[in-house]
Amino acid sequence: MPIRVLSHPPLPELRAWLAGRGAPGADMAALEAQVREVLATVQAEGDAAVARYTARFDWSGATAQTIRVPEADIASAPIPAADAAAIAEAAAHIRAFHERQRQNSWFTHAPDAILGQLVLPVGRAGLYVPGGTGGDTPLISSLLMTAIPAQVAGVPSLAVATPPRPDGTLNPYLLATARMLGITEIYRMGSAWAIAALALGTETIPAVDVIAGPGNIYVTTAKRLVAGSVGIDMIAGPSEIAILADASATAQHLAADMLSQAEHDPLASALLFTPDQSLARATAAELERQLDELPRAELARKALADWGAIVLVPDLATGMECINALAPEHVELAVADPWALVPQVRHAGAVFLGHTTPEPVGDYFAGPNHVLPTLGTARFAQALSVATFCKTTSLVATGPAYVARHGATIARLARLEGLEAHARSIESRFKE
């Protein structure tokens, strides 16, 4: 599989090509209709609908009575002590990072007035954790990256939804991770019906205020359709990485980093921008060699063939310009002096600096959130954070002197908009 090598293509062409990953296919309307039907069915039938969908697609023995995982199962889920220690260490790093994101309520004094803002957590959040290859590859990091920011925000009630395995069980690693986090409310449900149940509520599942967590196209479509009724973290697309490299980089490392994203999904994008032609050739050869050793080689090979590229650019500044134009999920600065390029970063979900900071460091362990904007949305969006689970409320307290001094101006502004009752409301305070 020779990866495409592009010689400084025009940016509009590069953007247009990659936009194909997120373009709705001909069957998108049909898929959306299916998801709307699921939402309507769950709203009408509640637990019975959730159980029926679960029995049809995941676990044939599912019933309305088995949707919620017994707390005893969470409490007793066994995993090796060494693995529990690794999860706990990652959780500590993630929590420490997100603690720095806390925002405080504040007040300021103006003449005859107090103004301020309350920062409050939402009352209840739903966390979606994908099943991961039939439950055999538990997405522990997805649970950590959604639950910990919600806990730091102070959300008092958390519900986790994840599809069961064919025998109705959940992977013990997910249960043990939930136990470490103090989460006791877990539901065996996946796909669009899980999002519907969280957003709309059922007899067993109280509705939530915010839904966070990644998922397949059915989950993503359901989140998009319920957005507005509940808050959502983001509409996420396939994984992507863009690497800027100079002659100091190692082809072996670059290829490994590109494959770390290509193995996610056949729609994943892995791009390398470099002015060094010999590095480009060596990386292309390394991709071929390393692909032969990957368990998910077929999937990664398709992703690279369809959405991967090595892009030759005249210099690093041009490469950075290309990356900013694409606004990718992950950016690696595999250059001799990565800090010198940080001021040039404008649009990226997360940036990884230097030859010893591969993207998986952020995926699992360092602390920053790995739920990131994709498909160019880093132009206006950012990582899942504590703010995802908070809302702000403005406070206004004005005294009689304030109203007397400013009331006529306020009334004038109201009348300019044709809102007489607004004007009379303020005038009733200073014309008495």
Note down, in words, how this protein is organized.
Helix content is 44%, strand content 16%. It has 432 residues and is α/β, with parallel strands linked by helices. The chain folds into three domains: 147 residues, Nitrogenase molybdenum iron protein domain (Rossmann fold, 3-Layer(aba) Sandwich), CATH 3.40.50; 205 residues, Rossmann fold (3-Layer(aba) Sandwich), CATH 3.40.50.1980; 32 residues, no CATH class. A six-stranded parallel beta sheet has the order 1-11-10-9-12-13, with helices on both faces. The protein has a five-stranded parallel beta sheet with strand order 6-5-4-7-8, with helices on both faces. A three-stranded antiparallel beta sheet has the order 2-3-14. Strand 7, helix 9 and strand 8 form a beta-alpha-beta unit. Helix 6 runs parallel beside helix 7 and helix 10 crosses helix 11. The longest helix has 19 residues. The radius of gyration is 25 Å and the shape is globular.
Would you kindly provide a brief summary of this structure?
The protein has 432 residues and is of the alpha/beta class. 44% of the residues lie in helices and 16% in strands. It is built from 16 helices and 14 strands.
